[in-house]
């Protein structure tokens, strides 16, 4: 199936979920907006995820909003891998 989640890179560190939700909702119903923080410091990591209900809305938003500006920064959008890591998985990094 086509991906319905987007990974949004180069966000300003003070971005809030509504800063993504508002522009992205123009292209369809958004199920979830997630802005990961550094597990140890709580600092924002400069990227976020937008999950749509429908894959075609995600594709349209990616096409329309890639390279647009949020909070003074030009964002980059790629399709996100569907499985988001849990905090437990973030803690345990596998070393090869």
Automatic annotation (TrEMBL):
One of its GO terms (cellular component) is spliceosomal complex. Pfam families: RRM_1. It comes from the Eukaryota. GO terms for biological process: mRNA processing; RNA splicing. The keyword RNA-binding applies. GO terms for molecular function: RNA binding. Keywords: mRNA processing, mRNA splicing, RNA-binding, Spliceosome. Residues 4-82 form the RRM domain. This is Serine/arginine-rich SC35-like splicing factor SCL28. It comes from Prunus avium. The gene is LOC110747692.
């Amino acid at each position: 199936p086509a991906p319905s989640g987007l990974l949004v890179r180069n966000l300003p560190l003070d971005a809030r979920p509504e800063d993504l939700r508002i522009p992205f909702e123009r292209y369809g119903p958004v199920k979830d907006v997630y802005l990961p923080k550094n597990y140890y410091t709580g600092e924002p990591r400069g990227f976020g995820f937008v999950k749509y209900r429908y894959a075609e809305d995600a594709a349209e938003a990616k096409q329309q909003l890639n390279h647009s500006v949020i909070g003074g920064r030009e964002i980059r959008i790629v399709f996100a891998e569907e499985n988001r890591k849990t905090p437990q998985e973030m803690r345990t990094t596998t070393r090869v």
